[in-house]
Task: inverse folding
């Protein structure tokens, strides 16, 4: 086994091959001295490729951030619309507000992009005092219209004209509907 503990030296400053003190170059040595006239640099093609990769990555990240922001705004608008609908339903819970038809309105300066529409129709069931209420909250965002609709059933005891039946209507039809004889 050869002993390469000797220090390596350059035999000639112009030469790139290193030699040992014994004057022989090790067989597997490919060490070269840097040439001060030859500078290592990136080629134009490598730089252009790196710029294209970085540009594509930045564009993709920017698009993903934009979509996340749109989704967050959309989720926020749906939450606001749901809260406004609950507020209106509490406002409409007064039994004197059971007028059939469609009414519309807005929420004032606090929520300028949101409007509401309320539709009340008589329920087709056996009770005349049941009303179907559909409350729709609409808003516009980026030239697109969104809406949330809450459907409820209202009971107005003052609208009952049949005083002989129970809450399910006349007593004989109530049993027949329940499967009785």
Result:
């Amino acid at each position: 086994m050869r002993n390469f503990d000797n220090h390596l030296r350059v035999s000639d400053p112009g030469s790139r091959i290193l030699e040992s003190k014994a004057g022989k170059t090790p067989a597997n040595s490919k060490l070269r001295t840097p040439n001060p006239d030859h500078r290592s640099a990136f080629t134009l093609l490598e730089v252009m490729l790196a710029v294209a990769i970085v540009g594509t990555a930045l564009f993709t990240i920017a698009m993903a951030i934009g979509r996340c922001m749109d989704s967050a705004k959309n989720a926020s608008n749906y939450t606001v619309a749901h809260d406004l609908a609950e507020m209106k339903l509490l406002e409409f819970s007064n039994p004197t507000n059971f007028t059939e038809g469609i009414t519309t309105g807005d929420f004032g300066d606090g929520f300028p992009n949101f409007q509401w529409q309320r539709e009340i129709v008589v329920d087709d069931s056996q009770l005349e005092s049941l009303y179907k209420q559909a409350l729709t909250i609409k808003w516009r965002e980026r030239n697109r219209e969104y809406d949330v609709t809450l459907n409820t059933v209202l009971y107005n005891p003052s609208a009952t004209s049949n005083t002989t039946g129970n809450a399910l209507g006349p007593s004989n039809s109530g049993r027949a509907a329940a499967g009785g004889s």
About this structure: Confidence is low (pLDDT under 50) at residues 162-181. The longest strand covers residues 130-141. Residues 47-178 form one domain.
